[in-house]
Amino acid sequence: MEKLRIIFMGTPEFAVGILDTILKNNYEVVGVITAADKPAGRGQKIKYSAVKEYALENNLHLLQPTNLKDESFLEELKSLQANLQIVVAFRMLPKVVWEMPSLGTFNLHASLLPNYRGAAPINWAIINGETKTGVTTFFIDDKIDTGAMILSAETEINSTEDAGQLHDRLMHLGSETVIDTLRLIESGNVTTTIQNDTSDIKTAYKLNKENCKIDWSKSTTDIHNLIRGLSPYPAAWCYFADKNEEWNVKIYEAKAIFEEHNYATGTLICTKKEIKIATTQGFIQILSLQFPGKKKMKATELLNGITFSESAKAY
User: Fold this and answer.
1) Domain ranges in the chain?
2) Dihedral pair phi/psi, residue 223, rounded to 5°
3) Cα→Cα distances 209→83, 144, 219, 282, 293, Å
4) Is the dihedral angle over the CA atoms 302, 306, 307, 308 positive or is it negative?
């Protein structure tokens, strides 16, 4: 049984859950690599990645290269004498890095590969109305999320859960799957499966302003899936317009209501207690949202301070 000396690479909260589980299972982590610090928010204060904060708290050897091909970084990496590298939500690695350890470099991806390769697998599984998803470990090759698969684990997607809730469940499932993968590698019992590329593979495209905007002409289900698939981050958005005013509004939580009506698509229907938006097959009831310059709030809180006219609409 080969003793593992692990280098862990990752950046967001999702990666922290995995790293924590690796350490709690008494594996030796000889180095942690994460994104360089960058300014964030209105004050442009320097923000550490979630993985950096965890590494500092746990006295782990930390590297933050800006260039993964830089000679001094590669020398330091080599000097750590790791025999295995684990990547969770980091960035594409050059061949010189992923080929370095004798036991290879494996990635944990939050989807059932080959579906949802790419930047936002958790979001797109919900947006596309999938009823199941999962996690996959695979050895890295020179393309994105295409390497030979080691293990996968599946879970159902609840029809009301949002991306934040699914993220947390997949982080736990991913932690277990990484430990199972480590045990296989440690005992020399790894077998892999090559990913089959078919024409109907779904992609987890990078999220941007355009693909996060709500199209109110789409089906009630599709709109509801988009809202929960983008909640809590980066959030689905649209414009509210009333009289001569227009607001860019983020919608975090909503409910799909299926019933016939005579309203034009996008019409805002408000009472003192609720906001509904007409869709082709019913309504989307808005439960929580955020107006520009305001904090996120329940629809009922918003209605305490604003009244919409009958001509108000969302688009």
Assistant:
1) 5-187, 220-314
2) -65, -45
3) 41, 23, 20, 26, 18
4) negative
* 52 band by pLDDT with thresholds 50, 70 and 90: very high
| CB neighbour list of residue 121: distance below 8 Å, 6 or more residues apart | 109, 110, 111, 133, 204
Q: Which fold has domain 5-187?
A: Rossmann fold (3.40.50)
Superfamily per CATH, domain 220-314: Formyl transferase, C-terminal domain (3.10.25.10)
Q: 51: burial class by Cβ within 10 Å (0-12, 13-18, 19+)?
A: buried
pLDDT of 118: 95
pLDDT tens, residue by residue, 288-313: 999 999 999 999 999 988 889 999 99
Q: pLDDT tens, 123-163?
A: 999 999 999 999 999 999 999 999 999 999 999 999 999 99
Strands 84-88 and 45-47: unpaired
